[in-house]
Design brief:
By secondary structure, the chain is mainly α. The protein has 20 helices and no strands. The protein is 72% helix and 0% strand.
């Protein structure tokens, strides 16, 4: 079948025309959407300014009324935004009044419904608002095992308000979540819970041996630094994992005690320089002057960072440490003599408060 060139040109011209029309329509849609977004943003800004004024007036009133009728005509998304922005900064009667307003507007029931949504962003939105209100804690356990890691992280923040044994146990399990964001959220929540975490965390440290479980748990234990962690810290200071040993030695330095000093002195012979560095720093922080001779020997360590931390710890020990530093000036080991010289030249405040080498 023969097709004339003119016919092909007509078809090609028609295709180009259709494509041009589609491109023009696409541009118009984008411009129209941008114009609509700009108008909505300006409208929302005006509405929020009005809402903030009304809400400030409502909170200043002495007579307890909800003021629900003043905000019912506002879009739900703006109601959420208005209350979520101000809730964290309120307490006492004002917070109770705002919580009552959220209840009367139906925002609380809507948030609880969103927490059960099939879409993760709705669950997140509901969990955030419930966290601000401090309400609906019965849903936290479910959301701590949510398929989406951002929702689990938000649930961990929510759980920090309720230091119950069940939630603490679940947060400890969240410490070894595959998502890093969940690690930090769980650590922060446990630290906020405070003393109620000490006993279950001590049991957790004693009953686990894997590195992935122990590292974040030891970080929390270091933040709490309770005597109940001492048996686990002593045991874990000899763990096969480098990071676990470093954290355990750091925890021992925060706890102190005769057994601790003996273990820290032993850790000065660890085959990893990070552990030796942390042990030297901990001995200086504890101010245990009988360890001065052992720290002086560490001035000959092959690792510069260990020599530096040992010299600073000797300086922090006061007169006994200074005596050993002056003796080291004549040491046959050039590295030990040089480090002692540097430590003795440092001002007193600088030598004591330099950050940890670890």
């Amino acid at each position: 079948m023969n097709v004339s060139p003119d016919f092909l040109y007509e078809i090609l011209g028609g295709v180009v025309a259709v494509e041009g029309i589609l491109v023009l329509l696409g541009v118009l849609v984008i411009l129209g959407h941008g114009f609509w977004l700009r108008r909505e943003r300006e409208r929302s800004k005006r509405l929020l300014a009005t809402a903030h004024t009304r809400l400030a007036s409502l909170l200043e009133e002495e007579a307890p009324r909800t003021g629900c009728e003043q905000f019912e005509h506002f879009p739900v998304r703006l109601q959420f935004r208005l209350l979520a922005d101000i809730l964290p900064s309120l307490s006492g009667a004002r917070r109770q009044r705002l919580t009552r307003l959220a209840t009367d507007l139906g925002l609380l029931s809507l948030s609880l419904k969103q927490c059960r949504s099939r879409w993760w962003w709705r669950r997140l939105r509901g969990a955030r608002f419930c966290t601000s209100l401090g309400y609906g804690h019965s849903l936290i356990l479910t959301l701590l095992t949510d398929p989406h890691h951002i929702v689990r992280s938000q649930a961990a923040e929510w759980a920090s308000q309720y230091p119950t044994p069940l939630l603490i146990k679940q947060l400890l399990e969240l410490l070894h979540d595959e998502e890093i964001l969940c690690h930090y959220a769980a650590q922060d929540a446990l630290l906020r819970m405070g003393d109620s975490v000490i006993e279950p965390l001590a049991d957790y440290l004693s009953s686990h041996s894997q590195q992935a479980y122990l590292e974040p748990a030891l970080t929390v234990a270091l933040g709490l630094a309770a005597p109940e962690f001492l048996p686990a810290a002593l045991s874990l200071s000899g763990h096969q994992s480098l990071n676990v040993r470093v954290r355990a030695v750091s925890l021992l330095g925060a706890l102190g005690g005769n057994d601790v000093v003996n273990v820290l002195t032993e850790r000065l012979d660890d085959h990893e320089q990070e552990v030796r560095t942390e042990a030297a720093r901990a001995l200086g922080a504890l101010g245990h002057w009988p360890a001065a001779s052992r720290l002086a020997a560490a001035l000959r360590d092959p690792a510069w960072i260990v020599r530096r931390e040992s010299a600073l710890s000797l300086r922090a020990l006061g007169a006994p440490g200074l005596l050993f530093l002056r003796r080291a000036l004549c040491d046959k080991d050039e590295f030990a003599a040089d480090m002692a010289r540097q430590a003795l030249d440092l001002p007193e405040t600088t030598a004591t408060f330099l950050p940890s080498a670890s």
